[in-house]
Design brief:
Its main location: cytoplasm. The chain is of the alpha+beta class. It folds into 2 domains: about 10-35 and about 265-464, Alpha-beta prism (UDP-n-acetylglucosamine1-carboxyvinyl-transferase, Chain), CATH 3.65.10.10; about 50-260, UDP-n-acetylglucosamine1-carboxyvinyl-transferase, Chain. It has helices at about 50-60, 75-85, 120-130, 150-160, 195-205, 225-230, 265-280, 295-305, 350-360, 380-390, 420-430, 450-460; strands spanning about 10, 15, 30-35, 40-45, 65-70, 90-95, 95-100, 115, 135-140, 165-170, 170-180, 185-190, 210-215, 235-240, 245-250, 260, 285-290, 310-315, 320-330, 335, 360-365, 395, 400-405, 415, 435-440, 460-464. The strands form 7 sheets. A 4-stranded mixed sheet has the order 24-25-3-26. Strands 4-17-19-18 form a 4-stranded mixed sheet. A hairpin with a 2-residue loop joins strand 1 (about 10) and strand 2. Helix 9 packs parallel to helix 11. The longest helix is centred in the middle third of the chain and has 13 residues, at about 265-280. The chain is globular, with a radius of gyration of 21 Å. About 55% of the residues are buried. The structure holds shikimate-3-phosphate (S3P). Shikimate-3-phosphate (S3P) binds near residues 49, 122, 194 and 370.
């Protein structure tokens, strides 16, 4: 028998691979079937993007950073372990409650072993940026999915800052990052809308003298900028007349430990929210959902489609806007989602495609080229999942059109390709489709949403 996560031998109830953070598993495929009205109040785990950044910035700040609400998913646990290997003291105090004692900007130590980033593109790219600014060498690797993903998007600007890289053909992990002895500040215009690339450059820029500027043709999530400011760095943001955003960091600051309160992840909240919209009679509340304006594209789109989503008790927590969301089953209609909205909902297209299958009419999603280089080729995986479940659609190089008929037929088995969001999206589909939906592998769900199955069943979902 093989481990279904890494294909190593499975013996005596354990995976024989001894990779850091890898638990291995033999959990089989899972099915979702037509469920009664979903009801109740839930809280989703902490925001993945903010959790990575809290550990990274805490790890290079002076003093002890207290983090609450941290996502304890596998992706973030890999980042925690890698920060430890580079000198930070990272301790779990209680559920979601962590303390990080940092080494100071420029103070990373060279890791004695390979840095395994698991499934996490965010962890890998951000830490490659951080290492690039330090005079240390680190070798990065990941799982089969991460080792297929493009890294040239970060190695290109980081090379300009003085780092060098030795990796596989096509700029893939495993890769050695040889950090710059004297990093140089750069001004860099992002060729792809990517918060990971922006953040990698800013993290390298922390160790460079002078000002590092990233120009974003389309603004992407700004958690790095917000948290850098929170830890005492000087960050200037200018919105230019042409719609681009210029983010400038003054290098070599002293970062001072500061408490971080991590809000619930809107990208995780998306799953119970869409489930409640499509399961007749549902009425649920999801508490403490992060509503950073650069993350709410899905909610805006769903509301345009006719979703009944109420924002309750809007407030600011830990420097980010949050609210409790009440969601009721809704009759949805098809809409066109413009390419300009993609950066603010980039991770939500798989679950939007599911909502679109339950809407009436055509939903057209444009500007999806980046979906091809996520944890899987998400555009192809979504299209295959829709096809397996009888949903009429058309997928192009960078667009997806879904013909909604009010209800997806279901009845198919979906290949998840090691992609947590594909697994969760199609399980959501099965809760309201005419026939059950099966996904072939649910392990990866733990990378971003540990407890997904329990949370959904607590609302009334039937998963088996
Ligand atoms: C993330 C940025 C996005 C997103 C990912 C998290 C981040 O990736 O898809 O899940 O935390 O910066 P890109 O930067 O590749 O768009």
């Amino acid at each position: 028998m093989k481990c279904t996560v890494c294909q190593s031998d499975w013996r005596r109830g354990k995976c024989t691979a001894r990779r850091i953070g890898h638990r291995g598993s033999q959990v089989p495929a899972q099915s979702a079937q037509i469920s009664p009205a979903l009801t109740g109040t839930v809280t989703v785990p902490g925001d993945k993007s903010i959790s990575h950044r809290a550990l990274i910035l805490g790890g290079i700040a002076v003093g002890e950073t207290e983090v609450t609400g941290l996502l304890e998913g596998d992706d973030v646990l890999h980042t925690a372990e890698c920060m430890r290997r580079m000198g930070a003291t990272v301790t779990r105090v209680g559920e979601g409650h962590w303390r990080v004692r940092g080494v100071g900007v420029g103070g990373l130590i060279e890791p004695a072993d390979i840095l395994d980033m698991g499934n996490s593109g965010t962890g890998a790219r951000l830490l490659m940026g951080l290492v690039a600014g330090h005079p240390v060498t680190a070798i990065f690797t990941g799982d089969a999915s991460l080792n297929k993903r493009p890294m040239a998007r970060v190695t290109e600007p980081l090379s300009r800052m003085g780092a060098s890289f030795v990796g596989r053909a096509g700029g893939k992990l495993p890769m050695a990052v040889i950090g710059a002895r004297d990093p140089m500040p750069i001004e860099y215009r992002l060729p792809v809308a990517s918060a990971q690339v922006k953040s990698a450059i800013l993290l390298a820029g922390l160790c460079a003298p002078g000002e590092t500027t990233v120009i974003e043709p389309e603004p992407t999530r700004d958690h790095s900028e917000r948290l850098l400011g929170h830890f005492g760095a000087e960050v200037r943001i200018v919105d230019a007349a042409d719609g681009s955003r210029h983010v400038t960091l003054r290098g070599q600051p002293e970062l001072i430990a500061a408490p971080v309160v991590v809000p619930g992840d809107p990208s995780s909240a998306a799953f119970p929210i869409v489930a409640a919209l499509i399961v007749p009679g549902s009425d649920i509340t999801v508490r403490n959902v992060g509503l950073n304006p650069l993350r709410v594209g899905l909610f805006d789109t769903l509301i345009e489609m006719g979703a009944r989503i109420d924002y309750l008790d809007r407030r600011v927590a830990g420097g980010e806007p949050v609210a409790d969301l009440r969601i009721r089953h809704s009759e949805l209609k098809g809409v066109t989602v413009p390419a300009a909205r993609a950066p603010s909902m980039i991770d939500e297209y798989p679950v939007l495609a599911v909502a679109a299958a339950f809407a009436r009419g055509t939903t057209r999603m444009e500007g999806l080229a980046e979906l091809r280089v996520k944890e899987s080729d998400r555009l192809a995986a979504v299209a295959a999942g829709l096809a397996a479940n009888g949903v009429t659609h058309e997928a192009g190089a960078d667009y997806l059109v879904v013909q909604g008929t009010g209800r997806a037929p279901g009845g198919g088995t979906v290949a998840t390709h090691m992609d947590h969001r594909i697994a969760m999206s199609f399980l959501v589909m099965g809760l309201a489709s005419a026939q059950p939906v099966t996904v072939d592998d649910t392990h990866m769900i733990d990378t971003s949403f540990p407890g997904f199955g329990g949370l959904m069943t607590s609302l009334g979902a039937i998963l088996s």
